[in-house]
Design goal:
Blueprint: H1 2-10, H2 17-26, H3 38-45, E1 50-53, E2 65-68
Antiparallel strand pairs: 1-2
Length: about 70
């Protein structure tokens, strides 16, 4: 399990700022999992939505990324 966590943390997204903004718009500026919108997320967690891999063994690009809490 520790190897999995280390590999996950060392991965870097290859996503442009424009791709990330488009991704958040596609998900209605909300978490892809719980639906909490960006404003509520900032209010409750004091941070913006972050990039989350859909498949942790998958690609480092926009095709494998969603906004998440």
């Amino acid at each position: 399990m520790q190897i999995y966590i280390l590999n996950r943390e060392s991965k870097k997204y290859e996503i442009s700022k424009l791709e990330w903004e488009s991704c958040k718009i596609y998900f209605d500026n909300s978490c892809a999992y719980c639906g909490l919108n960006m404003e509520e997320h900032k209010k409750f967690f004091n941070q913006d939505l972050h990039k989350e891999y859909v498949d942790h063994e998958g690609l480092n690009d926009i095709s494998n990324c969603v906004p998440s809490c």
